[in-house]
Amino acid sequence: MKRLLLILILTLSFQSWTQADDIRDFEIEGMSVGDNLFEHSVIINKTKKQISNAKLSFYPKSKRLAMWNIKSNNFKKYESVQFSIKPDNFKIYRISGMIYDLDKNECVSIQKSIIKSLEKDNPTAIKDIDDFDNLDYLDKSGESIANGIYLDFPSGDTFSVECYLYGKIYKEKNNQKDHIRVSIETKESREFIQNEAYK
């Protein structure tokens, strides 16, 4: 019941957004790109010291940006939030909210609803659709798949909604769950993911 309520809140919350002049107008759990994690210690239920001492993960091919995934009882819409940050100053370049254990139909339905609402209110954004494809760079078995719908703003910043559905063996081995991922990211973060992080 709680999960269904979360999904409903998530879907409806985007319908109240008006046209965004800047990607920084979008927020996930009250946080946005360009912010510093230290500003949001109460939201993420961590002290500044805990944030400074956080164990960060890095992308396979570059350490220019780091990842930090956290769960907090203070989150209202998402089960966890992932940040891509500069490891030296904790400035946010990408922020993603996740809800887990959705099946493919649930995920795609929510994905389309969110994008439809945002696309209507942000006509200057260009929609790009990636159909479901194998996540070969993660799972060589070919059983893990993902898709994505992206709204690219004139600034080069991006709003995206992606569905990740993992193969059974990959899930068990890597402690992963199927999920929807709603992300706000700067142009710099997008270029980093495309050109440095995995190549």
Kindly summarize this structure in a few lines.
This protein is an alpha+beta fold.
Question: What would your notes on this structure say?
Answer:
This protein is α+β, with helices and mostly antiparallel strands and 199 residues long. The chain has one domain (2-197). 27% of the residues lie in helices and 27% in strands. The protein has 5 helices and 8 strands, in the order ααββββαβββαβα. The chain has helices at residues 2-13, 48-52, 104-121, 168-174, 187-197, and strands spanning 57-58, 66-70, 80-85, 92-100, 126-134, 145-152, 158-165, 179-185. The protein has an 8-stranded antiparallel beta sheet. A hairpin with a 5-residue loop joins strand 6 and strand 7 (158-165). The longest helix is centred in the middle third of the chain and has 18 residues, at 104-121. The chain is globular and about 40 Å long. The N and C termini lie far apart (42 Å). The model has no long low-confidence stretch (mean pLDDT 87).
